[in-house]
Amino acid sequence: MVSEVLPSPSPEVCFQPAPGQTVFAETTTGSGFTIYAISNRLDVRIHVSVSTSAVDFSLNKVPAVGLAYYTFKAVVNLPESEPLTLNYSYTVDGKTVTLDRPAIVMPRTCQTNEQEFRTVVELEPGQDRADIKIPWLKIDEWQGWVWVRPRNTWIEPRWITLKELPVLLGSHFFLLQPVNPTIDPAASFCVYPCSTAEATVHLSSARDGEQPNTVYARVRRAKADCTAKVYIVGKITTRADVFESIDGAIEMAKEYLGTSNLAYQMPPAHDRGTLWPHSQLGFCTWSSIGEYVRPTNENMDRLVKSLKDADIPIGSFIIDDGWQDIRAGMNGIPETTGLWSFDIWDGMNISFRETVDIIKQGIPTVENVGVWMTLHGYWNSIASKSPLVAKYKMKPFKLSRDCVPGLTYDGFQMQTCTQPDEKDYIWWLPPKELAYQFWKDYFSVCAAAGITFAKVDDQAYCSFLAGVEGAEEAFALWDGMNKAADEIFGEGRVIHCMAHYERMFNGDIGMGLATNGKKVVFRNTNDFGLPRPNVHRDHIHYNLMNCMIISRMCLIPDADMFMSAAQWPEYHAVLRAFFPGPVLLSDRAGEHDLELIYKLIGRTRSGVYEVIRVPDRIQLLRSRIWDPTLASGIGPSIKAAARFPVANASSLILWSSRDSAAYASTDILVPSDISDALGTTGVLSGTKYVLWFNGHRTAIYFDPSLAKLDTPLVEIALPPETPEVITIAPLYSLGGKTDSIEIACLGLVNKYASLAAISEIEVLTAPECLRTTVTFEGKLGFIANTVDTSRIRVLLNDAQVPYKAEVLDGLSASLITVEVNAGAGVRGAADALGWTIDVCVAASD
Q: Among 165, 294, 723, 744, fewest CB within 10 Å belongs to which?
């Protein structure tokens, strides 16, 4: 018998630091700098050239998770004062490949103090605009992430040097690292242009006639007949902590706005007799019935029956675009459409109330039904011949592309300024003094039909309203809409969508001034499944990058809907589990992944299904902000962490993120990553931890007291489209001083946000137990550092129950799982705190 010789795989090699990346290093006498490489080939020879010498990498045996890759390392001498240039190459199959870009290591030879920068711009009465130089933001000294508005209603992060700062497009936030070697290489610089209720501001590069190589503030008046101010602030910190600079800049802006002591408040859990819509699993019709397909009695009935037959416990339901009574051709060309009345369109063939009844009677778990609309009624505002025009004394408002310069327009789209003739850039709107009444009447009609919340879209397009009058109208529309929604539906029951503009991202709404500290739900990014390259990867990236800013403001970030059985479903589901905003499905009828859906939700003791998710913001790892996670070839993944203080634990989440999903993501996790995930106050003194890789069902131990910050803990490789959730949990010693067993609680291991189910955890002494209280049904998991579990017993609400023990290969440990589902009760039963599970360890004989 002749065995088949399989060909070797094509070589894949990546480096840390990566080609083109600049990192810094502390300098000590005789210090060396360690470089790591990862490859899919064990026979590869990897080299780094430094000055006139070359150093070969050697195999570095590190615990590996996921795909079969190998870790290599090399150590080079670090100069005391000069940048170190690393030129990489590797040889395999008789061929040598030299990478075209070097990595740069900046020795930390200078350490500077924190610095603050402030520019206040005043518009005198009668002055409607100003273009002001920002001299302290020098374009040849910084590079990094800049949040730019490249689309009508969306702001997205871009990696640029400040020399490449857009000339026309507005930039709304900066997170920068130095490229000038005279600046402390550990510095991070956050710049925040802060708008107010009187004027808006963003930044751009110099335009024709302005001083070259200079950043300018573009200021626009939003309130007539007053002295209007805006503020541009910057904060440099030097402890390699990007969050310090972000927090510092935002706090400086709050000082100017007078909101430093304003406490941000989440919406009430109950209001008007129903739960807050976003505490339960939601559903949206947009992708489910077909985008741009209008809802009808028939397709809605079919969809509702599908959800009921699948036994999906939907708690809130959004009827998206298409339900309204609209008319075409009255506000420009025949394709444009405007709102005609407050009623439902006649194609439903049933009333507004009957439409809501189809949903609530068809899916008994639905408590809240919401509807979609735009901040100006419909895409092209109110139809010019609508009876609403006379009733609310509406008048035409001019829109102008000059209000948001630099955007490209590729043919006609829904929004008004894509029409071919500029004379049609007109919206019919109620005057500012009637904006609140318009919205109160509209929402009252909706409420009478059974609607309890709204998704208000296209909000940022109001920044196209021309002149000071247009800016005042935009403010009045939002203020009136939000006030009316709070009164009619209850507080915090609007999803503010397509709302990426100065007032929300940089101004009085985002800072809580407009709502007196009441948080509002804010759509964090563009749609999840658009036909664009890298759309799914970028969706995760944009959400996490935006959340880094938005979660520090008076906003609740919403990651958008997704589909449970199409378009990278688990990739998106994991993100939603770690976001505080709505979790919305948009499945087509009959296309549901129930296993995935139930990893997002859980049933309480009262029998109600709720979303199991992070209690606070998810954050990117601060030391990984600068990693080239979006580059081609193998290389690092997107990484973020969520902390669960009640459980003394954290989740570290990875998403494979390479360009075009053509290669695996490969990472070397080091102790500083774990400490970062736990937080400076989250590491328990004298405590060891376990890292549980949920998708791979394996674990490693981590002892913070023994680990060096840059020593590899584990190498993990994820194939394209794949996320991984790593639970970082402390080990508690039980069962005696000399023969104890160490046990860590992993939370509900059949849920993505497993730790979110834990409401309390403590160690009891008589008997020695680890007591965990959880608020949802599920499979509660523990790691015990023994393969002999005979000394362990488990109590559920004080009654002994069986458990399953699974030996983990190569770890001398066991995974213990307990089914938590007793006494769930029925819907409406009196609630309890949850279930109490005691894992007790008897002393050995």
A: 294
Statement: residue 829 has pLDDT above 60: no
- For 417, the 3-state DSSP assignment is helix
pLDDT, residue 830, reads: 43
Encoding tokens for residue 81? 């004062």
Range of lowest pLDDT (161-175, 422-436, 731-745):
731-745
Q: Do 780 and 749 form a contact (C-beta atoms < 8 A)?
A: yes
Q: Is the pLDDT of residue 1 over 50?
A: no
Residue linked to tokens 């080079």? 76
Q: Across all residues in the chain, what is the average pLDDT?
A: 94
Cα separation, 352 vs 451, whole angstroms: 9
Give the C-alpha separation, 16 to 35, whole Å. Answer: 6
Per cent of the chain over pLDDT 90 is: 87
Looking only at the bridges linking them, the beta strands covering 215-221 and 129-133 are antiparallel
What is the number of other CB atoms lying within 10 angstroms of the CB of residue 685? Answer: 6
SS3 category, 354: helix
- The span from the CA of 843 to the CA of 845, in Å, is 7
User: Rounded CA gap, 186 and 174, in Å?
Assistant: 16
Query: How does strand 732-734 pair with strand 741-748?
Result: antiparallel
**Which of 211-225, 229-243, 759-773, 810-824 has the weakest average pLDDT?**
810-824
Q: What value does the CA radius of gyration of the chain take, rounded to a whole number of Å? A: 28
The DSSP secondary structure of 642-679, one letter per residue, reads: EEEGGGTEEEEEEE---GGG-S-EEEEE-HHHHHHHH-
Q: What per-residue confidence (pLDDT) applies to 617? A: 85
End-to-end CA distance of the chain: 57
SS3 306: helix
Tokens (6 digits) for 681: 């106050």
Residue 257 has φ and ψ, to the nearest 5°, of -80, -10
Predicted local distance difference test score (pLDDT) of residue 685 = 85
The span from the CA of 613 to the CA of 578, in Å, is: 5
| Residues 6+ away with beta carbon under 8 Å from 702 | 671, 674, 688, 689, 690, 691, 713, 728
Q: Per-residue pLDDT for 399 more than 70?
A: yes
106: closest CA among 76, 87, 80, 141? Answer: 80
Cis-peptide, bond into residue 431, ω within 30° of zero: no
Mean pLDDT over 95-108 rounds to: 93
pLDDT at residue 377 in the model = 97
Give the model's confidence band at 9: pLDDT under 50 very low, under 70 low, under 90 confident, else very high. confident
Q: What is the 3-state secondary structure (H, E, C) of 724-775?
A: EEEEEEECEEECCCCCCEEEEEEEECCCCCHHHHEEEEEEEECCEEEEEEEC
- CB contact set of 815 (below 8 Å; sequence gap of 6+): 697, 699, 781, 782, 783, 805, 806, 808
Q: What HEC string does 183-238 produce?
A: CCCCCEEEEEEECCCCEEEEEEECCCCCCCCCEEEEEEECCCCCCEEEEEEEEEEC
- Tell me how far apart the alpha carbons of residues 835 and 128 are, in angstroms, rounded to a whole number: 61
Cα 536–Cα 537–Cα 542 angle in degrees, nearest 5: 100
Cα–Cα distances (Å) from 749 to 497, 782, 827, in that order, read: 33, 9, 25
CA-CA-CA-CA dihedral for 131, 135, 137, 141, to nearest 10 = 130
What backbone phi and psi angles, to 5 degrees, belong to 237? Answer: -120, 160
Q: How confident is the model at residue 825 (pLDDT cuts 50, 70, 90)?
A: very low
Q: Mean per-residue pLDDT for 672-698?
A: 92
Please state the φ and ψ torsions of residue 368, each to the nearest 5 degrees.
Answer: -125, 135
